[in-house]
């Protein structure tokens, strides 16, 4: 199946896809900030440049797009029918890089929380954000003991 756009249109569409400050990321940032959590964004000194770093809680948060990070068994992760091999290589590289970053962060003593794009849809948003707060606070309570 051929692409429905010409090369220039497809290139423009792809250039508009952001790597940071995405809608799911901003949603989580606003939620946490409104509840008094303070964090750093995209800390380049940490493996994988986590989307949010909460130093007080020794916690990092990754907010992954289901397509770009290959969320298994998710309806939002569909392998494109054109250039399938290229896309699978790209997505599998992202998955490998995510795993490496998480391994390094865990070895450094960081708690890692991954939120998937599909977990921020309206039907499950409140539950996801409540679990996020509990996960963050749980790591602080363990440090105080």
Automatic annotation (TrEMBL):
Sample GO molecular function, one term: endonuclease activity
UniProtKB keywords: DNA damage, DNA repair, Endonuclease, Hydrolase, Nuclease
Keyword Membrane: no
Swiss-Prot/TrEMBL GO biological process terms: mismatch repair
Superkingdom, natural source: Bacteria
Residue ranges crossing the lipid bilayer per the database entry: none
EC id: 3.1.-.-
Any Pfam family the entry gives: Vsr
DNA damage among keywords: yes
InterPro entries: DNA_mismatch_endonuc_vsr, Restrct_endonuc-II-like
Record family assignment: Belongs to the vsr family.
Reported function: May nick specific sequences that contain T:G mispairs resulting from m5C-deamination.
Protein name: Very short patch repair endonuclease
Organism name: Filimonas zeae
